[in-house]
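Still learning. Show one?

>
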Amino acid sequence: MKQKNILTWAISAIVYLGLVIAGYTVFASLDSNNDHTDTHDEAKTNGNEEKESINEQAHKDNHTSQRSDGKDLHSDHVDQLESEVFTNVKYEEGLIIIDVKDKDQNSPKLEISHEKIMHLIIVSADLEDYYHIHPEEKGNGVYTLKFDLPENSYKAFVDIKPKNLAYQVSPTEFHVGKGHGEHKGNPLKVDTNLAKTINEKTVELNTTELGINKDATLSFDTKGITPEPYLGALGHVVILDDKGEEFVHVHPQSEEKTLFETKFDKPGIYKVWGEFKFDGKVNSYPYVIEVK
């Protein structure tokens, strides 16, 4: 009888122990799954928050870039944004008048770029005559400059940097004198000699291979003579297509080299003006190149 009781107690103890172990195993398994689920959910939440943060920052960065300065490069093509600033150019009896307004007809605040609040590029319709001048502010968005232009048809490019507003440089046609019709194109011939001499100073243009949407390097060999600083740089480069529509204003890549970088988004013939200052005079060297 005593042995039977001991056997019964032993069996009961074994069964009880088995139930305890089984119960602990099930609990541990459920807890592990919960931990995994919580960790996964936390990682997912953190990932989403990080993604939202990145997207928000990208939006801010994009917004900032879209509302940055006027185009130096196709440069920089914050491309084809709808301009929020509009310019009108008139020429009256030797006075150039530029009116600058935003879409609400208010005068926007302009930031100084390369030592000037406005760079005005004027070219004759045949792209032969070239002027880079700097009208001065007169108030209420009006900028003027006394400047004599010979009779001809012209295109003006108002290069400005409105603060916190998108702006696209576009050509404005005007005429000086009578008998000048609308300009429709230029039969430009590509230069076979890219060494030009003005005021006894020679500058030669060398380029990398010119193609569409490729980084293009324009290197100007000043023949051992370092240009004098001009508008905060060693030089300036302006590029127009043969129709006088595509405008590019490029600045050098460093303060020590007359090296410029840009891109071309269309094939065709382009005219390049390299501006360099020697002996206190600014020379504008013209070149005609082809982008294939």
